[in-house]
Specification:
9 helices, 4-stranded antiparallel sheet, 61% helix
Length: 230
């Protein structure tokens, strides 16, 4: 198998997530309600539904022209992110920001891995390559270029060697849409989902996933680093 034959090679997340919108929504609708009821109770859960509708309506007036001007053309992807903001904002109004993050992280503990498996090639396909790390570097290099072309990310390659691939994302539409909506912390579940999935995903390849900061958490970039475990 060639790297170019790997699942979703050279495709941006905006295209892929639009395609899997149905399965993603079904998964979240299955896993999230029990967690929310445990934290908010029945009445709080019913109130959340009302507030999500209200927040969704309020966010219709937010000017998202800046992300479209960056080249982001997938309206499905934009609606997905706005819906995430509506849910997070409603949770904050009921339970406060800290509790909202706890709830969202517990949801991600359940759904991040299966969603990421829809987005990424099976790790076993990299292991079949003559040089798995080179295949991974080639795959991710194509991924970041596709993300830039789709208006999702700006980035710079900080290091590209036989042992390390380090990429600094200096712009992220996952983060920018919540920021324009006035609650950048709504991107936090997306950051956390990476941390749930990637360490275990890369371990069979003898690689370590490292990230010390993200834009959503106040950093000047998201510093993705994949390095061989010595």
């Amino acid at each position: 198998m060639r790297v170019e034959e790997l699942k979703n090679y050279g495709r941006p997340y905006s295209d892929i997530m639009a395609e899997i919108a149905g399965p993603m929504k079904k998964l979240v609708n299955k896993e999230a309600p029990p967690i929310i009821r445990r934290h908010l109770g029945l009445l709080g859960s019913l109130r959340l539904l009302f507030l999500v509708r209200r927040e969704r309506k309020r966010l219709e007036d937010v000017d998202l022209a800046p992300v479209r001007q960056k080249g982001l053309a997938s309206e499905v992807f934009i609606r997905q992110r706005v819906e995430e903001v509506a849910v997070f904002s409603a949770l904050v109004k009921i339970a406060g920001k800290e509790k909202a993050m706890v709830i969202q992280r517990e949801v991600m503990d359940k759904v991040a891995r299966p969603i990421q498996e829809m987005l990424n090639p099976p790790v076993g396909q990299f292991l079949e390559m003559e040089d798995p790390f080179k295949a991974l570097r080639d795959f991710w290099t194509a991924f970041w270029l596709a993300e830039k072309n789709a208006g999702l990310h700006d980035y710079e390659i900080a290091e590209d060697s036989d042992d390390v691939l380090a990429v600094n994302a200096t712009y992220c539409a996952f983060c920018e849409i919540p920021r324009l909506c006035g609650i950048v912390e709504a991107c936090e579940p997306n950051c956390y989902a990476d941390e749930v999935f990637y360490p275990g995903y890369f371990e069979p390849l003898g690689l370590r996933f490292v990230r010390t900061k993200t834009l959503a958490r106040g950093g000047d970039c998201c510093d993705f680093r994949f390095e061989k475990i010595k």
